[in-house]
Amino acid sequence: GRENVDSRHNRGRGGETTRFHTVNVAQPVRFSRKCPTGWHHYEGTASCYRVYLNGENYWDAVQTCQRVNGSLATFTADQELRFILAQEWDLEEKTFVREDQRRFWVGYQYVITNRNHSLEGHWEVAYKGSSEVFLPPDPIFGTAMAEKENVLCAQLHCFDLPTLWHRGLHSWYAENCYEKSSFLCKRSQTCVDIKDNIVDEGYYFTPKGNDPCLSCTCHNGEPEMCVAALCERPQGCQQYRKDPKECCKFTCLDP
User: Fold this and answer.
1) Which domains occur in the chain, in start order?
2) The model's pTM
């Protein structure tokens, strides 16, 4: 940003010279990167993606993605899925990854409706209200499936052989949700403020959290370069409550 001081001289009453100092606030810098470090950006959906290698069951994976302002990945179209399959994910740790395949929890669940001779059911997006329109084809059923389990969780399997990356070979598995696996998180490339508003890259905002007096710049989808304001307690009030979403706003609780 740039900072400039402009001195202006005007004539006040009585012929005195009044000096005004106008300070232009440093404008936020716009950054070229759109995702945090370690995430892959896809322009088609303005989204960021990251593989987590620490093996977790489906429900723990859901919570891990939520902690980074995301969710388990779902896909809006074949183009987005092809983008995921083409990425060379950093897979140095092989604890929960076979040498020839990459297996990731993703944001779908298979609901079983009939357990007769074959398992009949349908895929659903795991999170209601999602605008995703892509649903997987019929799954391959995992070997660790519980007999009484009526909901299975989606694993995307793709080949980890460099010669096959460009072909996008993959398969969909319906697995026991309590099995441990690597997983794929998806999040928006933008920041979200304390009032759930979307913040564009490079702009000031107050991030979600416990401090409504925090002002940060949205950088790579994360709050950075933050400064905090300190508030004096309300005068003449012994008991008070802070507003969790407004800086320096109090409610007096005295009778």
Assistant:
1) 40-91+98-188 (3.10.100.10), 191-252 (no CATH)
2) 0.60
